[in-house]
Amino acid sequence: MTQDHAEVIALGALGWLAEADLLDTFMSATGAERDAIRAAAESPEFLGAVLDFALMDDTWVRGICDAQNLSYDSLLRARAALPGGDLPHWT
């Protein structure tokens, strides 16, 4: 997967989080501020954080993937294509 494609998936995930009323939970977990999210969404590192957050809950993964018509492993593959995503998973 290319980084550009991964960024599109992450932006879709961010939109889904907002529609699912999980944006406040995301902001609380990451320290992101509502007013700064739009600008931060241009950063591949921030988009990686969006996917890190989304990957914490299988229900969220399924919801995001269903909304974007993606296979359920797409978020993990997208995360691997963004900065910091090549780190090993120990669990």
From TrEMBL:
<dbReference type="InterPro" id="IPR021955">
    <property type="entry name" value="DUF3572"/>
</dbReference>
<protein>
    <recommendedName>
        <fullName>DUF3572 domain-containing protein</fullName>
    </recommendedName>
</protein>
<dbReference type="Pfam" id="PF12096">
    <property type="entry name" value="DUF3572"/>
</dbReference>
